[in-house]
Amino acid sequence: MSDALPPLGEVIRAHGLRARKSLGQNFLLDLNLTGRIARAAGDLTGHDILEIGPGPGGLTRALLAHGARHVTAIERDERCIAALAEIAEAYPDKLTVLTGDALSTDPVPHLTKPARIVANLPYNIATPLLIGWLQAEPWPPWFASMTLMFQREVALRISAAPGSKHYGRLAVMAGWRTEAKICFDVNPSAFTPPPKVVSTVVHLTPRANPLPCRARALERVTAAAFGQRRKMLRASLKSLFHEPQPVLEELGIAPTIRAEQLDIAGFCALARRLDGS
User: Fold this and answer.
1) Strands 143-151 and 95-99, bridge-based pairing
2) 3-state DSSP of 3-33
3) Domain limits at 78?
4) Are 196 and 222 members of one domain?
5) For the segment 224-264, what is each residue's pLDDT rounded down to a tens digit?
6) Which residues 6+ apart lie within 8 Å of 126 measured at CB?
7) 43/161 same-domain check
8) pTM of the prediction?
């Protein structure tokens, strides 16, 4: 699918745009690739879309061309606003651009639920944004899915299974409330400027009934356990429980295992026990 707008390279030259490292920017110029990301998000018709860091609007255009009911984009870089305005003109009443920091801008009042989040996330705020969305209350959340691009290393940490070398706090938080699936990799050559790492698109679907526990308690447990991941749980959890061994035995968790060996259900049980204590 395409539109009548000029190629992205022309848009960037016309508006004098140059990606800024300080903003974590890497512009994605391949419209075939942005279309592939839009398709990975599922059926967009009838859905509002939240996009973070649209830059010159390559993915924005793909989302609209693939039938999104409306796109709300949060862009911190005011240099990009004029380019995005051209897209808004080509798709009347279909695009709202909020100027500001995505970490402190609440998009929910601008969206009809359930929305989809689709974004080539700026590297420097990708993980904090994801953690914030995973902690949304109430749950099920205001979004139906998240289709996000991360550095490949981060994508592997999001989707890791217990026992793998990438399994850690991010995998527990993501796996607790969502099902995360790696879609495909994106080579550095697809970006301007090319990053030094491979990027990966991840699709996350909220679980209707995640295991019960509070996000804050789960964060504390995973921080303690993975903060000293070489230690056995009976040692790494001493900052949370005065006597971790009896607590672990009570929950049916072997005190001698390490954090990467404990599944998400075990971490949730520890979080509930922490709240109870």
Assistant:
1) unpaired
2) CCCCCHHHHHHHCCCCCCHHHCCCEECCHHH
3) 8-206
4) no
5) 999 998 999 999 999 999 999 999 999 999 999 999 999 99
6) 24, 148, 150, 151, 154
7) yes
8) 0.92
